[in-house]
Amino acid sequence: MNPSQGPIGAAEKTILIDSVGIMLAIVLPTIVAIFAFAFWFRASNTKAVHWPDWEYSGRIELVVWSVPALTVILLGGVAGSAPTTSTRRSRSKGRRSH
User: pLDDT tens across 12-46, in order?
Assistant: First the structure.
């Protein structure tokens, strides 16, 4: 049984590949940033500056909330548009002219 056989399977395969690509574009830089922060702010690094009184940045807050929101919107757009296209194609191919 080949799941990518037929128009619905091909559309689902495209959605899956696109979604994984979009999510990896977010996850991989996040993982790299975690290791970079851990390396920079390790106890033996005397160059790292700690600001205990710093508590809010509007720019950082905007980035922290906009990246996940845009990711969800993009994934929703990818998932929502592909089945519509495949359904239209399959309906138009199945019509008979009388």
Answer: 888 889 889 988 988 999 999 999 999 998 888 88
Q: Identify whether the C-beta of residue 75 lies closer than 8 Å to the C-beta of residue 22.
A: yes
- Backbone torsions φ then ψ of 96, nearest 5 degrees: -110, 145
| CATH code for the domain of 17 | 1.10.287
What residue numbers bound the domain in which 63 lies? 7-48+55-94
Contacts of 75 (CB under 8 A, 6+ apart): 19, 22, 23
- Contacts of residue 20, defined as CB under 8 A and 6 or more positions apart, other chains included, come to none
